[in-house]
Write a structure and sequence with these properties.
Elements: E1 20-33, E2 36-43, E3 46-52, H1 59-64, E4 70-79, E5 94-105, H2 122-127, H3 129-132, H4 136-158, E6 162-163, E7 181-183, E8 191-193, H5 199-207, E9 212-221, E10 232-242, H6 246-264, E11 269-270, E12 276-278, H7 279-286, E13 300-301, H8 303-306, H9 312-317, E14 324-330, H10 336-348, E15 355-359, E16 365-366, H11 368-385, E17 392-398, H12 400-417, E18 425-426, E19 428-432, E20 437-440, E21 445-448, H13 459-465, E22 475-480, E23 483-490, H14 495-504, H15 509-515, H16 517-523, E24 530-536, H17 537-544, H18 575-580
Helix pairs in contact: 4-6, 5-16, 13-14, 15-16
GO molecular function: aspartate-tRNA ligase activity; aspartate-tRNA(Asn) ligase activity; ATP binding; nucleic acid binding
Catalytic activity: tRNA(Asx) + L-aspartate + ATP = L-aspartyl-tRNA(Asx) + AMP + diphosphate
EC number: 6.1.1.23
Amino acid sequence: MHRYRTHTCGALRDSDIDQTVRLSGWCHRIRDHGGVLFIDLRDHYGITQCVADPDSPAFKDAERLRAEWVVRMDGRVRRRPGGTENPDLPTGAVEVFVTEIEVLGPAGELPLPVFGEQEYPEDVRLRYRFLDLRRDKLHQNIMTRGAIVDSMRRRMKEQGFFEFQTPILTASSPEGARDFLVPSRIHPGKFYALPQAPQQYKQLLMMSGFDRYFQIAPCFRDEDPRADRLPGEFYQLDVEMSFVTQDDIFAAMEPVITGVFEEFAKGKRVTKGWPRIAFADSMRKYGTDKPDLRNPIEMQDVSEHFRGSGFKVFARMLEEERNQVWAIPGPGGGSRAFCDRMNSWAQGEGQPGLGYIMWREGGEGAGPLANNIGPERTEAIRAALGLKAGDAAFFVAGDPSKFVKFAGLARTRVGEELNLIDKDQFALAWVVDFPMYEYNEDDKKVDFSHNPFSMPQGGMDALTSQDPLTIKAFQYDITCNGYEIASGGIRNHRPEAMVKAFEIAGYGEQEVVDRFGGMYRAFQYGAPPHGGMAAGVDRIVMLLCGTTNLREISLFPMNQRAEDLLMGAPSEVSPKQLRELHIRLNLPDAK
């Protein structure tokens, strides 16, 4: 007999009855039923009920056991008594009558329970992550993550992509976030950077003639953490293709992502034939570039109905050309209580309030706005929005560039409060035609709005003749249920166009050569048209596991302060290590 087990704790079935078996695992739960001890023994594969009564030679040893002790148990498989079967367990028809117990690893008093899924403080969960990972839901999430990555890898290879690994130690690059820097011992005063993304390397692979590349790539960004973005590091499905248009990339990647979602959707519907939404339309209709299309609400510009109206606050605003009034329909929200609740919510968001109109039976509009603008305008708004009696509409006004984010939040709030969001689907879409540049108010200059290596629509002609803030890029995102899960673009592969694009953003040609020398040189020696994307593995897994926190699908995450409480990172290093790296600390004064 094997030293530790003949079967796993998830393996025993009716066919094993009367066999003598050996199991090893953790004591998941121990119950005393009138002097008979029931021990649920757990390993990675499942749970088996083990029984010791006063007649068992192992009874004395069984009485010593505590939760999470690791033990070996020998015994005979028998059928559970009628009425005690557990249909929720694959092993639920049988139990093991224990004849011998060996304690392999006793456990101290637990800082958090493993049995059950009760909430527990995050700092305790992260400090004792090895215990947290034993809990069933988190354990299963991690296994699902592995299966999703396997599915991605398989589907990419079926699409004719080749897997490559790019370097981890590289040069600092302006990818939009702070780099993690690694000091060089061999080259004093110089630093490597951990890659924010394999962007330059994957483009260089296209210059090298490899045609279709992918990898499950680790990426490192020194960003502030939030629930949908882990601090420090994350993984992405990184992709690049040669001799392709934007449509070619969509045709290659849409089946991969759709297939992964369908495989793990657990019965939820998955969008087929994804819609393509222009960035400007997405901002206008949904108030965000990552719309949750499960929410049917679409905002509309209703400025014409308030221009010159009796509602002077909006009418005066509209005297300035840039200002507009947007309406957020609220089907079924035509009650005073709901409208007042939305108004209070808006005030809690730092707004003066949220104007509204309610429609009563017979189509009559009600509320301060309706009283001010009169029945004709109120009816015109109702017709434009396609609303009926019992519905409401909410209004935001001013410069859309300033209120658009709040409008998007209000749309989401209305959809959630009125239960309009269809939570039984994964609604996927492409968002396209992103602006190439944006105006940086802090630095008072034009800056890249997304990836600086994207091809502008119109190429060199657009860069030389158009207002930079009107140039669109061959740049696109994949969105799902209100999250951006992928981003990509067709690359700017012409060296003169690359230099011009960076020049508009304030980089001189020499700076481009200094910072992107490898790629700049490669562009001089025959660069194919190419493009790609990167899909966030962590966010896709989070969505498919039905959680909203990336810590629930990651093995050893950091906390909100970017600290690894389990391993004690970041940590101080010895003076000897600092001397070897030629580094002297200049710490801020303690407050």
